[in-house]
Fold:
Amino acid sequence: MEEQVGRAFVEHYYHLFDTDRSSLASLYHQSSMLTFEGQKLQGVHDICSKINQLPFDKCHHLISTIDAQPASLAGGIVVFVSGSLQLTCEEHPLRFSQMFHLIPTPQGSFYVQNDIFRLNYG
Amino acid sequence: MEEQVGRAFVEHYYHLFDTDRSSLASLYHQSSMLTFEGQKLQGVHDICSKINQLPFDKCHHLISTIDAQPASLAGGIVVFVSGSLQLTCEEHPLRFSQMFHLIPTPQGSFYVQNDIFRLNYG
Structure:
């Protein structure tokens, strides 16, 4: 089950990121945390400000691997992604790894409680 | 707090891995899960069999980054590590990323509930 949820979430997340970054706000809550290249942010407002202000206009995420596991008896899921990020301003794609800790909502979907992103330097 | 716990855990984990791999059994429980390069394992026995049977004798983990966040109100912590793995049989170190979801024990320490490991291919 967690594999299907993880894959569906990841495809949805990066589709929004690549097409309408501001709409990612719907996937975070007030308690959510993002660590982006070592910078810690908390809450929908600060997280989405960071994402919206990243210094590139267009990007395309290409996913290499998705691993998912149940994180708790309460229905949480941890998802670990590796892939590459193609920016229009850069010739070569950037390799990245990212993890998400997803928490189920009463409405039957999931929100991101924990999000940690790192570029992989070779 | 979670930064200190994350760093202490990561240093302890890779020290054991590099000096006495079999002793890592103490850090996993029956409910623990490991996904190693896409292969899913559950429980202390299966996880430690996998780790002990990795096809190299000696290795050295060099840590590049450690990011940690509280994962729940119950005291869980997610830790995200990037680094490189030097094998005695390989000239070049292998870049990796790994995440841990740590759960507090009644004794005041932590065990690994979720562990996902991936090599980063360039």
